[in-house]
Amino acid sequence: MFCSPEKRLANAVSIFVITTLFYFFGASLRLIDELSLFWPLNAVLAAVFVRCPFLNRPVYYFVCYSAMVVYDAFTTNWGWQSAIINLSNMVFIIVVARLLLRYSRTQDESNWALNAFNLFYACLIGAILSSLLGSMGSTGPSSDYRQFISLFADWFSEQFSTGVLMMPFLLMAKWPQWSKLPAFHLSKIYPLVAVVVSVMASVVIGGAGSLAFPLPALIWCAIRYPLPITALITFLTGGTEIILVANSIVVIHHNVPLVVTEMFSARLGIATMAICPLIVSVSVDAINRLIQQTSLRADYDYLTGVYSRSGLYEALKTNMPTKHLPNQKLCVMLLDIDYFKRINDSYGHECGDVVLAAFAEQLRKVVGDEGLVARLGGEEFVVACSTCTEEKGLAIAEKIRQTVELTAFRYQQQTLFITVSIGLATVTPEKQTLLDAFNSLLAEADKYLYLSKRNGRNQTSTASYKELALNS
């Protein structure tokens, strides 16, 4: 965001500018009788105060209110009514922001602000309170009951629908990371095309039921697209439908001209419809995050951060570098930290965990992009890489062994040095699948690891060198 807790003057100026710009934009959308088709200012500022909780101070609220009053002083002749109308805007902004921030303290979800029901109720309460005050300020003390009800209905429906449509996207919007965007496929635009077609069908067919035509397409978007994209598409679709209804392009009543009560019904119907894909999108997002967390726990070792056995098998299918090249060899190294039990017995299991994590980090640094690292259990690790020759695999194994031997591992005030024994096996997969080749090599590497242990540890053993011991 553009605001920060330390820059108070910059915060005040930013809020004043945003308020003025969106006040001007909202004023340009006014319809007959000084009513607004959309009034985006309140939703925008409520989202700003939610995303920057440190702005929720009386001084910044006063800056917002002052910007509104100053704008009206130069562009309208509302007099004292301007003070009440703008106060009603502040009621919506403060109530919605405070309610959503209150919900945030009772929820652990990363997308707490997009909990559809919280957003629904916050906008509902904010719209009711804001509309009551704004309607009284607009009609004045001499107005009749019918005029007040008509104005309240329009004011409430606009504030509620605009808040529900705009705020999900405003709360989630951020600059895209272009380098991480997935590759484009034509099939990805099908849900968006379905939304456009359904809106066009609403125009052609008409009637009150046509407002719900885009709902299945929006739910399709919620399933296929990320949460921020779904929120943006829902906002644009709902806003388009409101504009079409207001201009009688979508006719929801064929006999009677458009009146406030019909606009009230259309806005509430569209806003309520917009909640449905939002609920689906939030649910899909939560399921996806749960799947990612479950996959992370299954595929990665919680202590060291390297692959688990099951994670390594999946990685061999998808991430194995330079696989299936002619004469390319699969190299499997089985590593075991020497005398690791002594570390646990002498310094405790916490020290052992620290050493394991640091050892795994060193292992990843040495192997880099040349292979995959996994922890099989205890102090036993495996490295799988593809090499042109067995000698290249042996060179990597020796680099690992020597790096570990020279590295000082620290725990509290203790400095520890460890060594590692390695068993190395290589094969050209040819007709074997990568997993079958890996499993056979793992069993073979285990034999050579035993050979390294039997011959004094801190060495690498392989088929070409029955007893290769390069002690430091």
UniProtKB/TrEMBL annotation:
Any GO molecular function: diguanylate cyclase activity
Domain GGDEF: start-end pairs: 328-465
Cofactor(s) listed: Mg(2+)
Reaction(s) catalysed by this chain's protein: 2 GTP = 3',3'-c-di-GMP + 2 diphosphate
Protein's GO biological process: cell adhesion involved in single-species biofilm formation; negative regulation of bacterial-type flagellum-dependent cell motility
Entry annotated with the keyword Transmembrane: yes
Transmembrane parts of this sequence: 12-31, 84-101, 113-136, 148-171, 192-213, 225-252, 264-284
Origin organism lineage: Bacteria, Pseudomonadati, Pseudomonadota, Gammaproteobacteria, Enterobacterales
Protein name per the record: diguanylate cyclase
Record-listed E.C. numbers: 2.7.7.65
Pfam families linked: GGDEF
InterPro entries: Diguanylate_Cyclase, GGDEF_dom, Nucleotide_cyclase, Rev_trsase/Diguanyl_cyclase
Recorded metabolic or biological pathway in which this protein acts: Purine metabolism; 3',5'-cyclic di-GMP biosynthesis
PROSITE patterns: GGDEF
Record-linked NCBIfam families: GGDEF
